[in-house]
Design a protein that fits this description.
By secondary structure, the protein is an alpha+beta fold. The chain has eight helices and 16 strands.
Length: 322
């Protein structure tokens, strides 16, 4: 049977642009869909009879996709549904958006095929930071002392107990805003304490600063583990958070993990119910591997291009059940 893969992602996703032709070359039928097209430019339907299987369908223009025939779904970077412009009034639009979102999530959740990295409900829970830290600790990872709070006095106490050697970062995933601003991990400086009262408006993560020999991005695909060194300390811009991206001055190399760390990364992904995870670790100057977080939908293509690690091939193999 020819494998049929549904790729759910937004327009302009270079990871999907790269992997979809690879899937086609390997003999798969691939349907690419941005859920933001629903319900304006796409339609979804679920039909049930008293004595028969459910029938779920996706209409994309003149093409009809029988969702019961899918062999795999890749939840890459899907957008949320966008309702019709004809709907007037905030209350009506809010209601329609909620109903469309519920249908989309319900249908994807109920499909009986290979789901990568996981069902939406599993993904939602797996990316919660305090849950990640709790699971990582139980599996034996070292983590930095961490405080997640909206209490300014607790932040001051944490700062003093650790002699000011702490960093702050957002609690949730921070996409690039419309004005091009993204909040990275930052050192908490003495001057920042003058604004500590603002913490009461929004939770923040505070962690003890971990010295770095290198940072590691460990990408797990199924049962395969790809580790890359990110020499962030070579760049002033990237030294506190490699996502500040100074690739010209930040060497990347493949990294061989110790067997226990390798196995712990696999167990973490499986314990979270995932088949994919992008794990951020720090290798300290004295050789300790410290866990920071895991992103169930993390980017990897720049790692593949800089190191030659065959991550996309592993993604294809997993989607095709090989």
């Amino acid at each position: 049977m020819t494998p049929t893969v549904l790729v759910l992602t937004q327009d302009g996703d270079e990871h999907a642009d790269h992997v979809v032709p690879m899937l086609v070359e390997r003999g798969a039928t691939v349907v690419r869909h941005d859920p933001a097209r629903f319900p304006k430019d796409a339609a979804l339907q679920a039909a049930f009879e008293p004595h028969g299987p459910a029938r779920r369908s996706l209409w994309l223009g003149d093409a009809t996709v029988d969702l019961e025939t899918l062999t795999a779904v890749w939840f890459r970077r899907p957008n949320s549904p966008v309702v019709h412009d004809e709907i007037a009034g905030d209350a009506a639009r809010e209601y329609a958006e909620r109903e469309c979102g519920l249908l989309v999530r319900d249908i994807w959740e109920s499909l009986d095929c290979r789901l990568f990295p996981a069902r939406h409900s599993v993904l939602d829970f797996a990316q919660r930071k305090q849950h990640q830290l709790a699971v990582a600790t139980r599996l034996g990872f070292e983590i930095p002392p961490t405080l997640i709070t909206t209490q300014p006095d607790e932040v001051l106490d944490f700062y003093n107990r650790h002699e000011g050697r702490i960093v702050s970062k957002p609690y949730g995933y921070q996409p690039m805003s419309s004005v091009g601003v993204m909040r990275y991990t930052e050192q908490v400086l003495p001057a920042d304490l003058g604004y500590v009262d603002a913490v009461r408006f929004c939770p923040m993560i505070f962690q003890v600063y971990v010295p770095k020999r290198v940072e590691l991005r460990v990408t797990v695909v199924g049962s395969e583990v790809f580790a890359a060194e990110i020499h962030s300390q070579a760049s002033n811009r990237a030294r506190h958070d490699w996502r500040s991206y100074d690739l010209k001055n930040t060497p990347h190399f493949p990294h061989r993990l110790p067997e226990d760390v390798h196995d712990r990364c696999l167990r973490l992904v499986r314990k979270l119910g995932l088949s994919y995870g992008a794990i951020d670790l720090i290798l300290t100057p004295d050789g300790r591997y410290v866990f920071l977080e895991i992103n169930p939908s993390g980017q990897y293509l720049w790692i593949e291009r800089l190191t030659g690690l065959p991550i996309s091939a592993a993604v294809c193999d997993f989607l095709l059940g090989r």
